[in-house]
Here is the input.
Amino acid sequence: MIFKGIEIKNAFKLCLTKELIAETIYPNKSSADTLVEIIKEFESSKDDRIVNEESKRRWYEINFKGRITYISVNPGEMTSIRPEDNSEIILLPLTQNQIDDFNKRKLEKTKNLIKDLSQQNTSKSEKKLLKKYQLIIDNRIQVFSDASKRFDKEAKKINERNNYFYAENTMNRLYSEYLINIEDDYAFTLPLTRISTNILLLQAQMIFGIWANENIYIQNQATALGFCTRLIQMSQAVDRLKEFFQFGNEYFEKANEVLIQAIQNTGPISHIREIRIAAHYFWVAMMISKVANDIDTKEKKVLKYSSLIAEEGWACCVTSMSYTHYVYEHPNWFANRAKLILSDNSSNFIRKFSSSTNPILPRKMAEIYASYGKFMIGSEEIKNQEYNNLLNYHKDVSLNTFLVHLVEFFLNEISSS
Here is the structure.
């Protein structure tokens, strides 16, 4: 149940939004994503091998089919090289049967969640999100296929009209429908990496004036990206090449701007929506840089960033988008995490959960959890100070309804203790 049945306004919509965003990052769940989810489940199991020593970074050594991989969940990172720093390393051998069993349990859990949510009193917009979530869970391939065909038709119209203003208006509409407006009929009908690949390809064709004859937006992502590379290789126009690489710079700058904006946002729903938009910008910037690595042209020197830096930004956003389990925990869950990290100040906790490398929570939400965490472990003086901080948060007119109710819950917990 959401927040273990504790009623907090807009929690239902937060849960659905986070689940839809997490479910539609990729066309299909990659094996790497499954491994990360298994680790997250393991971390919540209170296994004796997990030591709550927050000063150390925790890595998992996974030996699967003879291949050893090291995975860190927070911050998110995956490598085949054993970490040499002062880290805690937990051995977690896995078999294919364990992975298959996990996927079956996850699907069953998701279906039970949908069943549970469908029985609650919900608004019209929440019912719409729930219907979309169930549709994707039940018929993922068909939903994505239909949306790809629609996008392909829209792209062909841009080519046929050959009109700048029509192209610009269509691009803005597609952005709104597939990416920005999460309540649009077409929202979540394409996975994020596919939307981003489509936008990149559409922009490339508009810049170079070369259009694919085949139904490129219906084919797989690798084919679409391969066509994008061929576009650049075929182009002899220096100014067009510079424009294309400058487009990558603009997207990389936008990615960082939106990421910072998401962290500073006061609402968790707006936060995760903007993290998704930042992830889109990072993905496009990353793909442009990788295309540049595959070709030999001096114009690629226009790029002001590397594919590695863009990939790191993308990975940080994916960690945030995939971080859904806290909405099923008691509201005290994050505050209890804060207790383990906090000393005299909340900077360590906030850096761990609300920073550009770990954008799990919006800043004010992290500050509220940190404040209640400090209250639980502090002296009488600190308790009074943090109680007043929570009262001030409650009066903060910039807080959205969800965070106001979260603060009210913590204040009620204090009053009843």
